[in-house]
Amino acid sequence: MDYTALSASAITNHKVTENWGSLTWLAGQQIGNARELTLGHVIIKPGASNPRHCHPNCEEVLYLMSGRLEHSAGEEKITASAGDVFTVGPGIYHQATNVGSEDAHMIVAYSAGNRQMQLKA
Predict the structure, then answer these.
(1) Are the C-beta atoms of residues 50 and 96 closer than 8 Å to each other?
(2) What is the CA radius of gyration of the chain?
């Protein structure tokens, strides 16, 4: 695989809708268009939170494109605005809560093509 292109209509086949928002997977081993990274677009609805989780096999970088989030990682909490970037190391439990009045849009990138996820018990 040296070059792969996905159309917008093909990308919609990789959208996962949750009660808190959605994840649209853009690249990764499951899609078949990247071997060593995973890339996605996350939307978190106003007042909603994604579940507290970690990624034991990879680092995660989040770029907040729009909205406001309270993001907790380990014992730390920050309030993020559009344009902010944060990185979470492997195995660190984290969660985002939309504290704004509009959908929060993020691009997320993982340092593994087969990103693993564990929910906090």
Answers:
(1) yes
(2) 14
Instruction: Look up the pTM and report it.
Output: 0.93
How do the domains of the chain map onto residue ranges?
Answer: 14-98+111-119
Question: pLDDT tens digits for 29-45?
Answer: 989 899 999 999 999 99
Amino acid at site 47? G
User: Which H helix or E strand runs over 94?
Assistant: strand 94-98
Q: Which of 4, 58, 57, 54 is nearest to 26 (CA)?
A: 4
Fold adopted by 14-98+111-119: Jelly Rolls (2.60.120)
The predicted pLDDT at position 7 comes to: 86
